[in-house]
Prior knowledge:
A: alpha+beta, B: Rossmann fold, binds thiamine diphosphate
Amino acid sequence: MSDTQDPYENLKITTGVVAEPNTSRANKTGSWREFKPVIDTDACIGCGQCDTYCPDQAAKPVEGEDFYGFDLDYCKGCGICAEVCPTDAIEMVREVK
Amino acid sequence: MSSDLQDQDYTDELEHGEELWNAGHRACAGCGPALAMKYITEAAGENTIVTNATGCMEVVSTPYPESSWGTSYIHNIFENAASVAAGVEAAYKSFDRRDPEHLDVQDSDDLNIIAIGGDGATADIGFRALSGMLERGHDVLYIMYDNEAYMNTGVQRSSQTPFGASTTTSPAGKESIGNDTNKKDMASIVADHGAPYVATASISSPHDFKQKVEKALEIDGPKFIHVYAPCPVGWGFDSAKTIDLAEKAVKTGLFPVFEMEDGEITSVNKIRDREPIEEWLEHQGRFKHLFKDEEQGEVGIEELQEWIDNRAEDLGLDA
Ligand SMILES: Cc1ncc(C[n+]2csc(CCOP(=O)(O)OP(=O)(O)O)c2C)c(N)n1
Ligand code: SF4
Ligand code: SF4
Ligand code: SF4
Ligand SMILES: [Mg+2]
């Protein structure tokens, strides 16, 4: 994911505040995950349903490939992608950290 | 478990587009409203000013100094997303009159002003502000995301909570079926204000929802979309089932999908073989009392089914 401004640099506290856009990427929600989605690269048909229904922008095409992968910096492990995948190409496995 | 599965990681090889609803937001895993925000930004694009009521979507997207939004965004207080949007629209019209060159975009017609509020913020506490915005005819699209209770403060009932749901302010028990009212018909109420475009949509059909957002933004005057967005935490279901439950709410007729133009119903998503409401109820913790106590269950399910059937008939919902 492209880098955005670090919102915590030069932090000021005022009444009525302005934050820069697209800065929540500083918050890596992947640490919340208990289950992780794993792709079966042969079964994936590249339809993009997982991307369409991921609330966290974490299911995306893998560069130069015809299958999808998961952004483990942000994926919360909700399991929606595995549920909507038409070919059952995604398995949710308990993550060992 | 094989270590291949544990080790698989494509994080650094993914193609991201221009996202205006960003990762890192703090919505719970599987949050339905978070998906609604994603679809709204995809349909509206970056020439958009969002005014947002207090509620889950505000709290999860803008803890200072972060913002999940790639659009302009204003949060003020709980009940006034509609008033803030009306003020923004009036200000742009005035700037336009005084200096047509002041905007990066061609003129204020190319600018989308979208107010977003939850069911509590919209149908209850911000209702007066919404009514004023509609009645004065501001060129604003108001989108109510409906997760059927006040979730951010811990699942209090709202006028969108369905009959029979147990919430912290309508707890089920020996003497109580849970919430004892049916969902308030916001679409008709808004249409009665003279709004030229009103629609309902569900996050289970993002294409339909996004088309309605695009269509609404082309129309002058006040527009309203009621979008259905399940909350795994407040309803008590497995986070993987968010889309499934949104779809079942449509297929059972609990949440009819339709459009109203100039006060008339102009399209209805017809349903073939409408499913009984149990199919939707049984997956949710907030209705589990209806399946435990036979007598209570029968009364509750029957009453809800009757309300759905009557509405389906009024709307001509069955194919
Ligand atoms: C005037 C006022 N009353 C109450 C609150 C507390 N409050 C903050 S968010 C919220 C619930 C919002 O419910 P809803 O609009 O349905 O959005 P959700 O949290 O479900 O997304 C409440 C009651 C407040 N901030 N301001
Ligand atoms: S939904 Fe399944 S088949 Fe479609 S792109 Fe995602 S993983 Fe591949
Ligand atoms: S598990 Fe949930 S958060 Fe993770 S990629 Fe799938 S849909 Fe997105
Ligand atoms: S409580 Fe519900 S609506 Fe609120 S962030 Fe969590 S899942 Fe989303
Ligand atoms: Mg709500």
